[in-house]
Design goal:
Helix content: 40-55%
Largest sheet: 6 strands, mixed
Mean pLDDT: 83
Radius of gyration: 32 Å
Structural class: alpha/beta
Strand content: 15-25%
Low-confidence stretches: 167-179, 197-201, 313-334
Shape: elongated
Strand order of the largest sheet: 4-3-5-12-6-13
Order of helices and strands: HHHEEHEHEHEEEHEHEHEHEEHEH
Distance between the termini: 51 Å
C-alpha cells in the first residue's frame, strides 16, 4: 500500500467534505479515491467515515487520526523540498568563453556525470564570469589573466575569408605549401604599394575584436601593438553580434581576432599572431563554496583547456593546433 497516497485521499475527503471534490482535487477518479479510503480503513481496523448519512461525515476515530495524517503529509512535503534543494545544490555552474565549440562543452558535461557531478555550462563574457564566480553563482570559471602569467594560454590569430588574396599577408603564397598556417605579424598588414603596373596602394582590412578580448589590458596591448606596427589609427574595432562579424569576415570585408578552432569551425582562413603578448591567458577559478579543498578538480582543468584551445603552463610555446582536435591529447595529459 502507498501510505502517502492513501493518506492524501483521506485528508482531501475530510477537508473537502465530499468524495467527488476530493477526487477532483487530487486528479483521480472517485472510485479510486473510495478504494483508497476503504483500504486505509482496513489497514487501521476502524471506519474513517460514517457512510450512513447522505453527507460525508468523519467518525470520531477519523477525527482523532486527522492531525497525525496531516503531519505525515507535511513532513513528506518538506522531505521533497529538501531533496529538491540538495539536487539543485549538486548542480555546478561552469563559466566559459562564448566561442567554445559545442563538442568540447559536451565532453565537459559528460565528464561531470562520470564523476558524479551535474555540470551546467554558461557561456559568459570575462567580466561577468569573474563577478558571478565571486558571488557564488558559478562553481568554476575560466578567468582572463595576462598570458605571460597564465596557467592556460590560448594562441590568437586573424580569421579572414577562405578565398582571401595572398597579397593580404606578405609571403602567404608560401603558406599554401605548408601543413600549418604561417605566423602573422601586425607589421605584415601595413599599407604597401601593390605589385601591379598601376602601383595602387593596398587597402588595410579592419580587425574586429569579440567580447572575450575586450578587456582594458587586452585592448590596450592590441592598440599599442598596432600603433608600433604602423597601422592606421582606428583599425582595431569592437565587433557587433558574432554572426554579423563572421559574415563580414567570410565576405572579406574585415578580419576577426579569434582562436584557430573558432575560425575553422566557421570555414574561415586563419593565421596565428606571432606576438604572444596578444594571446589569451586563463586561470581556472573556483567559487566560495568550492575553495575548501582543491580549487578546481584535476579532471576538469584539461577539459576546460581543450574547450578554449589552450596550451598549459606559462612557458609553453603557443600551439596553432585547434582546440577540438587537441582535446583528447590535453585530457590525457591532465
Amino acid at each position: 500500500m502507498d501510505l502517502l497516497a492513501h493518506l492524501e485521499a483521506y485528508v482531501a475527503a475530510v477537508e473537502e467534505a465530499s468524495f467527488s471534490r476530493a477526487a477532483d482535487r487530487l486528479g483521480i477518479a472517485q472510485p479510486l479515491l473510495s478504494r483508497r479510503i476503504k483500504t486505509l480503513e482496513t489497514h487501521f481496523g476502524s471506519l474513517l467515515f460514517d457512510r450512513s448519512r447522505r453527507q460525508v461525515a468523519t467518525t470520531e476515530f477519523g477525527v482523532l487520526l486527522l492531525p497525525y495524517a496531516q503531519d505525515v503529509l507535511d513532513r513528506a512535503q518538506r522531505l521533497r523540498h529538501v531533496a529538491r534543494s540538495v539536487r539543485q545544490s549538486a548542480v555546478c555552474a561552469v563559466g566559459v568563453p562564448g566561442d567554445c565549440g559545442p563538442a568540447a562543452l559536451a565532453r565537459i558535461i559528460r565528464a561531470g556525470a562520470e564523476h558524479g557531478t551535474t555540470l551546467r555550462v554558461h557561456e559568459l563574457p570575462p567580466q561577468e564570469r569573474e563577478a558571478r564566480l565571486a558571488d557564488g553563482s558559478l562553481a568554476y570559471a575560466l578567468l582572463r589573466v595576462p598570458p605571460e602569467s597564465a596557467a592556460l594560454r590560448v594562441p590568437l590569430g586573424l580569421a579572414s575569408a577562405p578565398d582571401a588574396p595572398d597579397e593580404m599577408y606578405d609571403g602567404a603564397a608560401e603558406a599554401r605549401q605548408r601543413p600549418r598556417p604561417r605566423t602573422l605579424h601586425l607589421e605584415d598588414l601595413r599599407p604597401r604599394r601593390g605589385r601591379d603596373a598601376t602601383h595602387k596602394q593596398r587597402s588595410v582590412v579592419p580587425i574586429l575584436t569579440m567580447a572575450e578580448d575586450r578587456l582594458p589590458y587586452a585592448e590596450d596591448r592590441l592598440c599599442r601593438a598596432a600603433a608600433r606596427a604602423g597601422l592606421p589609427e582606428g583599425l582595431v574595432r569592437p565587433a557587433g553580434p558574432v554572426a554579423t562579424a563572421l559574415a563580414e569576415t567570410l565576405a572579406g570585408r574585415v578580419t576577426l581576432l579569434c582562436t584557430e578552432a573558432f575560425a575553422r569551425r566557421h570555414g574561415a582562413r586563419w593565421a596565428p599572431l606571432g606576438d604572444t603578448s596578444l594571446h589569451r591567458g586563463y586561470d581556472p577559478g573556483a567559487g566560495p563554496r568550492q575553495r575548501g579543498g582543491v580549487p578546481v578538480p584535476d579532471w576538469l582543468v584539461p577539459l576546460l583547456a581543450a574547450a578554449v584551445g589552450a596550451t598549459t603552463g606559462p612557458h609553453t610555446a603557443p600551439s596553432v593546433a585547434g582546440g577540438e582536435d587537441a582535446s583528447p591529447r590535453l585530457a590525457a595529459r591532465g
